Amino acid sequence: GGEREKKESKKIIKPSIYIRKANQFFSDFSFNLVKKYGFKELQSDLIKANLNFLLRSYISVIIFTTLISAAASFFIFIFLMFFNIGFNLPIVTLSNEDLVTRFLKTFWIVIAVPIATLISMYVYPSLERDSLEKKINHELPFATINMAAISGSMIDPTKIFSIIISTGEYPYLEKEFRKLLNTVNVLGQDFVSALKNSTFNT
Question: CA 149, CA 143: separation in Å to the nearest integer?
């Protein structure tokens, strides 16, 4: 019993300090954003990419990270106002340009870095979803052949998925099949409805 409990506890993923802080500061604000704008496409991407984030939590992380990048870019801007960075020694040298010229050359950092951070974090789930889609599509034909062979023995359909999981040959499909079986075994949903949900979310 004790060992099984340890194994089960390892499966429980606790949020990092970073995510907890993001939720602590921005959870309410994110909730209002979700209420107002929905972000259905982002939510769908989070589910399909298996990122294990609540929509509200991921938006909090986006905001938190964007603000940190804005603060970092401000300090970089201040540094570059007075110093040059080169590829030859000495790497850091004092700038000899006047401050107005230097300001015009470096101020873009304060705007560009936070915007780039915001956009990259917003589109990341869709990129991850696309990557996972390719991996699943690669595994699917081989898994389908195996499943067709197993189904010839007329066993319970859910057992087919369990057998495919136990082979360990299809790591990306395995995650989706586990979710399907959990929907049936833990949540008590009927197999056909669970399959439909899995089709929609995968």
Answer: 10
Please tell me the distance from the alpha carbon of residue 7 to that of residue 164, in angstroms, as a whole number: 21
Residue with tokens 């004092």: 94
**E strand spans, 38-106:** 83-85, 92-94
Q: What's residue 3's pLDDT?
A: 46
Per-residue model confidence (pLDDT) at position 185: 87
CA dist list (Å): 188 to 42, 43, 185:
28, 24, 5
pLDDT tens-digit profile of 28-38?
999 999 999 99
**H helices present in 52-98, as ranges:** 55-82
* Positions in the chain short of pLDDT 70: 1-13
Residues 6+ apart with CB under 8 A from 38: none
The whole-angstrom separation of Cα 42 and Cα 126 is: 8
